[in-house]
Design a protein that fits this description.
This protein is α+β, with helices and mostly antiparallel strands. It has two helices and three strands. The protein has one domain. A three-stranded antiparallel beta sheet has the order 1-2-3, covered by helices on one side. Helix 1 runs antiparallel to helix 2 (75-109). The N and C termini lie far apart (53 Å). Bound molecules: zinc ion.
Length: 131
């Protein structure tokens, strides 16, 4: 038994995920944070009461080769690329679903699902101390 049993449920799940993934034209990693800030200028409107903070500063942060890279986006740029940020989240959900479906498939195909207690538990680890 090399390949997982092609059940109807599996086929539908697999097709649905493939179709959903095919619709994603882009996906951007990292996170977007919108900040409003105070500056260091004395008497600035950001220190007034109520304060008029500077911003919004839209920061897109991601990790590239272990280093954090930050880019400032304009509101127009954020609007333009928002779908790609949303897609990245959607992609993670789809991968999680594919993993769950695949785990079910291997359990079923290998007959493990019928034996839920088919795990090896370590024995003899409890050492008796003799008095
Ligand atoms: Zn200011």
């Amino acid at each position: 038994m090399g390949t997982p049993e092609p059940t109807r449920a599996w086929g539908a799940t697999r097709r649905g995920l493939a179709e959903a993934m095919a619709q994603l034209d882009g996906a951007l990693p990292g996170s977007v944070v919108v900040r409003h800030m105070r500056c260091g200028k004395p008497g600035c409107k950001c220190k007034a009461d109520p304060p008029a903070l500077h911003g919004p500063y839209i920061q897109w942060t991601r990790t590239v080769h272990g280093k954090t890279v930050t880019r400032l986006l304009s509101e127009t740029q954020l609007a333009r690329y928002q779908p790609w940020f949303d897609n990245a989240r959607r992609l993670k959900e789809l991968i999680a679903k594919l993993e769950i479906a695949s785990a079910h498939a291997i359990e079923r195909s290998e007959g493990w699902a019928a034996h839920p207690t088919n795990t090896t538990t370590p024995t003899g680890s409890s050492r008796r101390t003799s008095k």
